[in-house]
Amino acid sequence: MGDNMCCCGSADVMDQKLQEIIERYKDTNGALIPVLHEAQELYGYLPMEVQMKISEGLGITLSEIYGVVTFYTQFSLKPKGKNRISVCLGTACYVKGANHILDKLKEKLGIEVGDCTEDGKFSLDACRCIGACGLAPVMMINDDVYGRLTPDEIEGIIEKYKNRQD
Amino acid sequence: MEMVNITIDDRKLQVPKNYTVLEAARYANIAIPTLCFLKDINEIGACRMCVVEVQGARSLQAACVFPVSEGLVISTKSPAVREARKVTLELILSNHDRKCLTCVRSRSCELQKLAEDLNIKDIRFEGEASKHPIDNFSPSIVRDPNKCVLCRRCVSMCKNVQGVGVIDTNERGFNTIVSSAFNKSLNSVPCTMCGQCIAVCPVGALKEKDDTDKVWEALSNKDLHVVVQTAPAVRVALGEEFGMPIGSRVTSNMIASLRRLGFKKVFDTDTAADLTIMEEGTELIDRLKNGGKLPLITSCSPGWIKFCEHNYPEFIDNLSSCKSPHEMFGAVLKSYYAEKEGIDPAKVFVVSIMPCTAKKYEAKRPELSSTGYPDVDVVLTTRELAKMIKEAAIDFTELPERHFDDPMGEATGAGVIFGATGGVMEAALRTVVEILEGKSFDKIEYNAVRGIDGIKEAVVEAGGYKIKAAVAHGLGNARKLLDRIKAGEAQYDFIEIMACPGGCVNGGGQPIQPSYVRSWVDLRSERAKAIYEEERDLPIRKSHENPRIQMLYKEYFGEPGSHKAHELLHTHYEQKEKYPEK
Q1: pLDDT for the residue A2
Q2: Parallel/antiparallel/unpaired status of strands B494-498 and B465-473
Q3: For an interface test with A, which of B157, B164, B166, B168 has the most A Cβ atoms less than 10 Å from its Cβ?
Q4: Would you tell me which residues 147-166 of chain B have a C-beta closer than 8 angstroms to some C-beta of chain A?
Q5: Are A43 and A103 found together in one domain?
Q6: pLDDT tens digits, residue range B240-295?
Q7: Do residue A16 and residue A36 come from a single domain?
Q8: A77 found inside a domain
Q9: Which of B264, B258, B190, B187 is nearest to B226 (CA)?
Q10: Does B180 touch chain A (CB under 8 A)?
Q11: How large a percentage of chain B has pLDDT more than 90?
Q12: A76 inside domain
């Protein structure tokens, strides 16, 4: 397991947990999406090896699974960071300059939307409305909400998380 | 059948209740343009080309999926309908590379025809266009997403008909692309190379790997002795490329064209099919008598072989060790023939004209080079041969009568029927039954294994054995059959499996018929009919009675299954990983 993966245990333990998830849904209709959800919770993302195990377990071709994974933005092919940053690009936030917030984050972290920093500390995503339009522009880091943001504030906020011990 | 009254374009008619608007319109001889529609294979109403106005409906409806009902009033040509179709088509064209002049499907392209039929004069939308790399790593199939119209016909064919499922619709919105998982090349996924995706593609997004240049080059190389062989299914389909009706028999024109192209000898793969029957028949009898692994499963179809190696490794020992007929022929040409003619086998260049794209892949399998050289050097599809004939400006319809060359010229009817589903089984039974019974029979037609039912069965008694036979065509049917055997629900002694629905006559390398033809005409039956006509005209119809084959064993191989035969005519298989690159 690399550092940048959500570590719920060793690889073997996680594989066993995945088999349990598959076993639980195996004989139900529409099993794929719930299995993908739980697998993503377990691993943090859905790499090829995980999709292949699901393919084998559910008897669904890898290409069909990949089609579903790439259709829904909820699913990720790339690992997520310890701190997950999510910038709202909903209408209100966008009008209030959320794109500048996003640009600043990209610049500071040196990554693109959907990616994770090399040290595994941050991943960056864009999302649609999170229901806090009164605070636009808004971003979330893990469960914390930051509103009425200006690009200048970004550096300070990131610093706070950089050295956080968990 | 229950009928309903409907009105289409002010015409009142009665149509069966289970019709769609598209079928009803067709019944009334009213053409509705379609793009994604392919009857029984892709009926998803996705492309919106077939929209019609339904009285009382809020919006335009897709005729291909809209069911008729009592009192339905439809307009197929109202201003709203014509405008909607045009805008839709313009939008599709705005994200299409439009390099028609150099496209392999120019003049057989359904998109091009639509643009012409709908009188598109200008494409008003010049926005962003997708740019994707072309996948040409597979030895058989080239995929160009820049020409793809996202109709999903290939996806449905691969997934639902063939049960292979190596391509799907990925990403979403403007980024939507038909591709393999993780954007892998078709060469690194469990693609069987059957080419059925090509056969249903309306545009040039899927095509065979073009190997005609290699053949032109060989033909102009004076040091090489370039010979060609043609599979049985080619002669009943090649004519379609020259505007002839489906099911035209063009054996003589094909041979004459190949002569004019400059091949030294034109051989008939059917002779090698007779050879296959001798070897495979012997293998079956041996397994029956000596408790060998049963069922014996035929190995002529390279798409089926690759499918088995990826998906059903537990059946690998059931596969006949016989090479496919054209590979056997290649090995014979580079050994027996080269010796007999006094030609260095290194200088013998074997070209196979096949109805098949998987044969291109098969020819590159390293184990198929018994003489130290590849058994077959280049495989061309029926379509590629047509391209060469056109490039050489040969008037295909006006040619003198010609016959296949000796020493492997004359084939039997048994070899000819290899081209249709059930043919290998029937040919094998003709020979096996007579060997087991030790006498000759007049009644040699096995109608139970003919026809287009997905899985066919027959029980044949001979020499004290009750041979339970089954035939499956189309890999989806093969999957059903094998799963039944695995579950212990069925048991057989001998099975024929062909990767393509209908067998080789409907192979992935055959002339492409557009959806508005193949939705309503059964290509499999029409071409198979021509195959059975072709065979009826032949004087000898049992492989073991072919004097050329008898001579070949006498002069060279000794007897079927001999050491030499095994060296040159047999091969082996191995389990293959589905996704070798992680």
Answers
A1: 43
A2: parallel
A3: B168
A4: 159, 165-166
A5: no
A6: 999 999 999 999 999 999 999 999 999 999 999 999 999 999 999 999 999 999 99
A7: yes
A8: no
A9: B264
A10: yes
A11: 94
A12: no
CATH of the domain at A152: 3.40.30.10
Distance between alpha carbon B120 and the CA centroid of its chain, in Å?
34
Q: Which CATH architecture has domain B3-92?
A: Roll (3.10)
For chain B, which residues make up each domain, given as ranges?
3-92, 130-206, 212-569
ipTM of this complex: 0.91
> Do A71 and B171 lie within an 8 Å CB cutoff?
yes
Q: How many CB atoms lie within 10 A of CB B32?
A: 25
What pLDDT digit, counting tens, does each position of B414-460 carry? 989 999 999 999 999 999 999 999 999 888 889 899 999 999 999 99
Q: What is the mean pLDDT of chain B?
A: 96
Alpha helices in B333-381 (DSSP H): 338-341, 358-363
Tell me if B451 sits within 8 A of B422, measured CB to CB.
yes
- What residues of B are in contact with residue A67 (Cβ under 8 Å)? 168-170, 181
Could you give the number of structural domains in chain A? 2
Burial class, A163, CB count within 10 angstroms (exposed 0-12 / middle 13-18 / buried 19+): exposed
Chains A and B form CB pairs within 8 A to the count of 42
- Alpha carbon of A23 to those of A17, A18, B100: distances in Å? 10, 9, 51
Domain assignment present for A6: no
Statement to judge: residues A54 and A91 lie in one domain: no
Tokens of A57: 């377990």
List CB contacts (< 8 A) between B578 and chain A. Answer: 62
Task: Tell the CATH topology of B130-206.
Answer: Alpha-Beta Plaits (3.30.70)
Please identify, in words, the CATH class of the domain defined by B212-569. Answer: alpha beta
Place of tokens 């037609």: B445
Question: Which chain B residues are Cβ-neighbours of A62 within 8 angstroms?
Answer: 181, 189, 578-579
Among the partner-chain residues B168, B579, B582, the one whose CB lies closest to the CB of A67 is B168
Task: Give the closest-approach CA distance of B293 to chain A in angstroms.
Answer: 28
Q: Which of B159, B172, B182 sits opposite A66 (nearest CB)?
A: B182
**Is there a domain that residue A3 lies in?**
no
Return the residue in A32, A63, A65 with the most chain B beta carbons within 10 A, the one to mutate for interface testing. A63
Which of B551, B284, B272, B247 lies closest to B412, judged by CA? B272
Domain that holds residue A19: 11-71
Entry pTM: 0.92
Q: Which of A62, A67, A71 sits opposite B579 (nearest CB)?
A: A62
